[in-house]
Amino acid sequence: MSEWDIKKLHILRTLSERGTVTATAQVLRMTPSAVSQQLSNLAKQLGVPLLEAHGRRVRLTDAAHLVLRHAEAVFAQLERADAELAAYAQGEAGEVRIGAFSTAVPALVVPAVRALREAAPGISVRVRETEAAEAYELLAAGEVDVALSLAVQAPASPDADTRFTRESLVADPLDVALPAGHPLAAVEGLRLADLAGEPWIFGGSGPWSEITRAACEGAGFSPEQAHSASGWTAILAMVEAGMGVALVPRMAAVRRDGVVMRDLAEDRPRRHVIAAVRRGAAGGVGVSRVLGALRGVVVGRG
């Protein structure tokens, strides 16, 4: 029987995610030579080649991908074991680390922490604000236990990514921000398609860019990106100056003099706020309590 080494399998999985030995070494705080040596030893233990040369880099062999498919089940089972052991040892106690994008922190995470102080005072929560696009990287690396990210649509079931269990917490409506003097600012029954010819302001990449583009394309047009920004202060300042229009999440509750927020009632676009945990970890007392508190906040928001 082949010898399966969990530590080495974790290195192999990280290489699959990061793409290069150097990036893998940086994430795992190892030297590139140590990464290569560990993977070479794993290949000997399993009796199959795991890496092959690809130009100046290496890539995973078919055998390596087969190994990883089975390893994901092992990692999930270990997460469940850790969760059960923590529940046994700590009961209603322990620390849960949450990674969340900026607007989710005040709208969802802070109210959830307040609720947990009353319902489960033994569980402490450590919050890390992060870009939505980085949430899964932090979760996979074990740096957070619950990750809040964004998506155009709710996650499909069964989940395509076997590393995580994901759920849509809330479908957050998007309003359009217009300069106060814009000809469409007071038009009745404003539709997203009415803004097809406008210059748009949104981020250059990541989930928010995808959400804006998907919303506009769903309304029948491709938005002309006049300016790129990710912070709401910058975006709304440009809208106020008449430099373009933008979609703004209702959850952000951002308001600025000189900017009119319009509800797109007919074809209202939405962004999905996704909560993700490592597969197998949802049964842990702390993680399940945090997820429950987040769901409670969403229900309370109505």
TrEMBL record:
Q: Provide the HTH lysR-type domain boundaries.
A: 4-61
Instruction: Tell me where the signal peptide lies.
Output: none
InterPro entries referenced in this protein's UniProt entry, alphabetically: LysR_HTH_N (IPR000847), LysR_subst-bd (IPR005119), WH-like_DNA-bd_sf (IPR036388), WH_DNA-bd_sf (IPR036390)
Keyword Protease assigned to the entry: answer is no
Question: Which keywords label this protein?
Answer: DNA-binding, Transcription, Transcription regulation
Q: Which family does it belong to?
A: Belongs to the LysR transcriptional regulatory family.
This protein is called LysR family transcriptional regulator
Q: Write down the species.
A: Streptomyces huasconensis
